[in-house]
Design a protein that fits this description.
Bound molecules: S-adenosylmethionine
CATH topology of the largest domain: Rossmann fold
Strand order of the largest sheet: 3-2-1-4-5-7-6
Low-confidence stretches: 1-20, 208-212
Structural class: alpha/beta
Shape: globular
Number of strands: 7
Radius of gyration: 19 Å
Mean pLDDT: 88
Largest sheet: 7 strands, mixed
CATH superfamily of the largest domain: Vaccinia Virus protein VP39
Order of helices and strands: HEHEHHHHEEHEHEE
Number of helices: 8
Length: 282
């Protein structure tokens, strides 16, 4: 079935807690995005269900996997990545892609040049840029979104065996209709007592050689303190490093540690990751 054959969407009930969670067939997460939380959905569903009339707030929405599984009626989703947020806003308008999409290195680099030209011309908020962002995400290496110091998107070709591209995203229009997307720092968001916040920031990685330059330890502290000031129900996940556990515990969060699925990081380390789920006001 192609995306164009999809029927109008009914609101989807969240999966039963504890059940395995297949991606929603009608509007699955359309991008590849690091740190997907599908494995955590049964736990998040248990926390979310009693508050499902609240607005769900995701300060780090990333691949939108959580919102597209929980399907809140109202959502405020934020991310610091402007291309990602522009892509979601384009889905709200029923994005359709008309240019050629193939799993081919030559075409990939041509589309990458075009995407960079649009950015240089100040046209990164066009429908074409949103479509190219989707194509580059699906075709590039590991779904990475990386820019050099001059702001040039420089992810190489991904060399996947096969890619099923989607051209018609009109199925997403109804799902995202009442959702709001913002682009900025997490603590610029306006949260109220009727919200339910789920924060999935970049992981704390304690070894400097692996750590993200984009989200430093002081950002982790700023985030935890910001979350602790909120009066609504709050859940946050992170890597279960000692200092993260200590930070959230000191701020009065209730903490559970969970076993994340095995994954291979950029160093080839296959150690199963432990994560925390820290909650407050629940
Ligand atoms: C771990 S990912 C989120 C994964 C997401 N929950 C999912 O399931 O796909 C973290 C996200 O935080 C965003 N980010 C990084 N620093 C940020 C900041 N200071 N404020 C808001 N978003 C930020 C990144 O662009 C990235 O998309």
């Amino acid at each position: 079935m192609s995306a164009g054959d999809l029927q109008p969407l009914k609101p989807r009930r969240p999966p039963r807690p504890g059940s395995s969670v297949p991606p929603p067939a009608d509007a699955p997460p359309p991008l590849k995005w690091a740190g997907g939380k599908r494995w955590l959905i049964p736990e998040l569903t248990k926390l979310w269900e009693p508050y499902s009339r609240h607005r769900l707030v995701e300060p780090f929405c990333g691949g939108l996997g959580v919102a597209l599984s929980l399907r809140p009626e109202r959502l405020l989703a934020n991310d610091i990545n402007p291309h990602l947020i522009h892509f979601y806003r384009s889905l709200q308008k029923g994005l359709k892609i008309s240019f050629a999409m193939e799993n081919d290195a030559e075409l990939f680099y041509r589309h990458r040049d075009r995407f960079n030209a649009l950015i240089a011309q100040g046209k990164s908020d066009s429908g074409e840029a949103a479509g190219l962002f989707y194509y580059l995400n699906r075709t590039g290496y590991n779904g990475l979104c990386r820019f050099n110091s001059k702001g040039v998107f420089n992810v190489p070709f991904g060399q996947y065996k096969t890619i099923n591209y989607q051209r018609d995203f009109s199925a997403y229009k109804a799902v995202l209709k009442h959702w709001e997307f913002t682009c900025g720092q997490f603590d610029s968001m306006e949260i109220n007592g009727q919200d339910f916040v789920y924060a999935d920031p970049p992981y704390d990685v304690p070894f400097t050689s692996y750590s993200s330059k984009m989200f430093l330890w002081e950002d982790q502290v700023r985030l935890a303190e910001w979350l602790a000031r909120l009066t609504c129900p709050v859940a946050a996940s992170n890597q279960a490093t000692e200092r993260i556990i200590l930070l959230y515990r000191k701020l009065g969060f209730h903490i559970r540690t969970l076993q994340a699925p095995r994954r291979i990081n950029s160093t080839g380390d296959r150690t199963p990751a432990r994560e925390i789920l820290a909650v407050r006001n629940l």
